[in-house]
Amino acid sequence: MATRWGLCGAGKISHDFSVAMKTLPPGDHQIAAIASRSLEQAKEFAKRHGIPKAYGGYEELAKDPDIDIVYLGVLHTEHWRVGLLFLQAGKNVLCEKPFAMNSRQVKDLVAAAKKNNTFLMEAIWSRCFPVYAEVRRLLAEEAVGEVKLVKAYFGSPQLHIPRSVEKELGGGALLDIGVYCLQFVLMVFNGERPESIQATGVLLDSGVDESVVVVMKFSRNRLAFCAFSIAARLPNDAVISGTKGRIQVLGPMHCPTTLVVNHHQMEHPLPEPGLPLNFTNSTGLRYEAEEVRQCLLKGLKESPHMPLEESVLLTEIMDEIRRQTGVSFSQDDH
After folding, report:
1. Which residue, 220, 249, 283, 327, is the most exposed by fewest CB within 10 angstroms?
2. DSSP 272
3. Do residues 286 and 101 make contact, with C-beta atoms less than 8 angstroms apart?
4. Above 80 in pLDDT, residue 19?
């Protein structure tokens, strides 16, 4: 039986997700419905991607009995409210990153999933890429000895994009792209809580972070350094340095196809998209779709690659970085 997907949100990421789906066997994955706040947009999206049902509201999708999992591709300021709607309706949910606006909201989503016995995963698609699987394997084998320092960079000039700069839209570098650097560090250190976090950043006039540098110390004197910016392009790679060598994930580190281990290069190419994409390497969304299918087939309620506990920790770290850099959102007051 194919896994029947319902898409919530008819924006750019849902488009790329649909295109990525077409690179998977149709017997395994099927997009059964699309929901948008605008019925017109939903219908247009459905026509473009060959989706049988279009809904002009999220409630209708939540009530559709022929959906196995909902992909939540709405703006992250809406993740908490809309996520709760689906979870309380008993739907499995794959929620785009960042999971929500703060750790309190994330904990609410996790609690709702547990209460309703539904599958829930934060869509950190990076974790499902073959390059990331290879990194985990190399670390398990101690291929570079004891890890001493992890560095991750992500900079992308996007000051012209409203959702990146406006506080009401949950803007800032941290929630949009910094999350990728932080999740990489947590993967390398097995979801361990850092002993200390030091963050320095510069803010835009709107009050969101433009560029941030974070240094974290983990147990056994291991360090991590992250730099992210929505004002400048950075190397966008990630490097793990150990006592016996180094692993470099070449940019784009959040959706990589190339890995360099002690000067030995490995490639994991992506399939070509059938339609133009909005974001880099988006056909790689196929990997997280397949990961979700495998979890559902096994009856799991969360993904071992991105456990809910780690999503909570990731958001708690982001809360602390925001506290140190002076970024707050209206959602923090509730």
Report:
1. 220
2. P
3. no
4. yes
